[in-house]
Fold this protein.
Amino acid sequence: MPQSLSRYRPLLISVAVVLAFFATLSATMEARIWVSILLSGLTLAALYFLLASGLSLIFGLMDVLNFAHGSLFMLGAYAGWTFYTNPRVIFNTAPLFLALFAGLGLARWTHLLADRLPRRGLGRWLGLAVVVLVAVALLTLGFQAFPLDRLVAFGTTVAGRQVATAEAQEPLTQGLTRLVLLFLAGGVLSLGVGSRDVRQASAGPTSATTPSTLRAVGLPAVLVGLSIVLLLVRDAGETLMLKGLPSDLRFLLALVVGAATGALVGGLIEVGLIRPLYARPIYQVLLTLGLLFVFDQSVKAVWGPAGAFMEIPAFFNTASDRCPSPDLIAWLSDHCNSIMVLGRPFPSYRLFIIVVGVLLLAGVALLLQRSRLGIIIRAGVQDADMVQALGINVRRVFTLVFALGAGIAGLGGVAAAPFVGVNPGLALGFQLPAFIAVVIGGMGSYAGAALGALIVGLARAFGDYLVLTGVQLPGMSQALKASPTVANASTVLIMALVLLIRPSGLFGKKD
Amino acid sequence: MESTAPTTQRPVLARAGWLQRDGLLLAALAVLALFPFITSLLSGEAVDQGAPKFFQGLLIQMFIFAVYAMSYDLLMGYTGILSFGHALFFGSGAYMMGIALKHLQWPLLGAVGLVIVVAIVQSLIIGVLSLRVHGVYFAMVTLAFAQVAFLLATATDFRQWTGAEDGLQGIPVPALVSPTDNRLRFYYLALVFMVIMYLLARRIVNSPTGRVLVAIRENENRATMIGYNVFVFKMIAVILAGVFAALAGSLNALWNLNATPTVLGLDMTIEALLMTIIGGVGTLIGPMLGSGVLTILGYWLNATFGRNWLLILGVIYVLLVLFLPYGLVGTWRRQSARFGPGGWRELLRRTRS
């Protein structure tokens, strides 16, 4: 009994603190006020959790602290927003990237050629230079004069950008030329990916088996086919997307697109950039910080430095004379912008964010506790080498978990976009609280990430309220007021407190 | 006859050992000292006009960043502490200089004193809190602190002191060190500043304390076992790096006549990392060289690619981390250790000791 008590001590303490907190609230504030602040806090907490859970899982399993996690959140938000406001972009850009990946998929063949390249002295550098130059040239040709600004930006909220129009479509032959060029570029790049150095640096002991011919040819072929089909159905597809789909369905698809973007980019980062550096952990961190910078700049380059708002889908935004809905039951038929909670209207979309957060919390917890993959992940957190020794390809699990965490972050980005809009500040703006949440909860602990996110979210919401209404301290004639920025900054005080009392966090293992 | 030549040469060499060791550095210093006049001769314009003036400006920025990058390497390269919040010190130095000169109207020396005191206090607070965690945790926690400082600098609450988003504009710089009155004088001020800071850093690195810092980097547990109070030494490294960076930041404020929130931003930390990694981690010359490369590269990229030059810089950074982890100086030393004649001697020395 004492042993189990000490095991749950952090949990018990936090429950006690939370109870004391609510006791103070109900004694000092009206219920309708603090309940609505609480809901705002939960909204933020849900978003922070979507970031913190991935951060914590990735760190727990592979000891990589992903400083670019906020960027994945932001990329997801931008991808989802772009798809939601202008679905045609997917038919124009996706084929290009599919063709590029198809070319990269040729690595299983091109490594035979790559192994013949000189591996020492001048010849090695010369070969490298030729490969890089040809690849850059092909990539430049493939993307040359791509009407990105007419395809990506959409709507009046983006100042100075044109609204996407049908004229932005290129002739099919041009699109096909781009496909061929990018496929070739991918093939050339695969020389580098398939080279023995990279294979040795990245491959786990189990991946020495030769792949079947079907897989080696099949994947690139399927990708190429898909890209050509996507390009061919482009006109029909965009008519369907823009005119045929209601905004709710488009929003659902946008969530999928955001999550897929996050997962794809995350997976590629793990395989291409982080894997070669497992022997040099510090450089992994330096690399992810660099990626944060690169993504920040590329988002500014593609979408512009100004942000944009995202329209709330009709499901949460139907105007009628019965709005705001008096309660949840009435809302189910009205779909109003806001719902009355104890006599105060609360935006219904924010309730959706909370639901998404809770669903993912439960879903990932189920995955971790009840599935085979979850068992492997939890075992890997304990001792990755042991899991590898048991004959499980831990490297593949690493990639999967990285993609999973990144995908959750991307989904969170899309969910956040109608609430906070999209702008280049999203990455750091959400990563900072997620970091604080992870430090509070303890690195590598899933429950800790959830609890930390909850604490930071509530602290933000109540902090905002306090600084705006003012704090009356004894002995002061005027209430102390401040801007929300100060409340935002003061969440770091919680982190400082946790660092002082329990540096490993509430649920963290002692180091 | 044959044996006399070495015997007469040896004492001379020993006496002039520092000349041989630092010959390259001294030559570089001489070039930098004469640089304004060389550019003036080459371009045919007066020293305080046109191209010479422009290149002096470029080099002044480079000297300031060289000290900033060096301070970062004291932490990362020598002590093995990975901080992602170094902009906090640089930016605070800039803001403190600005506040002392503009709002408190202190004399320059008083302002420098304030910068140093604030830097020490900051380092102590950050150190006490953050050094409780290790490795990437430390990086994460320092990033959080630096971002908070950035947020506070942009907050409207302190507008009368910091100028919020606009930053602290129009710092009244004393005429003696004003970059607008006499840029050539400021050029030499920055150069002398850099040289003094380099000599100081070299003295620290080669002192017993510096050796302990390297020992901590190599194996923290072993340093603890030997009996060193690792926490105290790490704290010393944090304070030294903090003060160096703050001084560089304060000079930056004098040079730009302002202090904007960007000096506290993440980009500033990344710049320190970039310079250190380009030049070579764990050396003093490396980061300084890195600042030179970055300044020239940045100027060229900016002129060639315009708005997107930072993106290209980021990609270069990622490629460097992947393929050139030891930087210019580190890679050169490794290569010369493998092939060069001096390298063989070094290799023999290492195998003997």
Q: What stands out?
A: The CA atoms of residues 14 and 20 of chain A lie 10 Å apart.
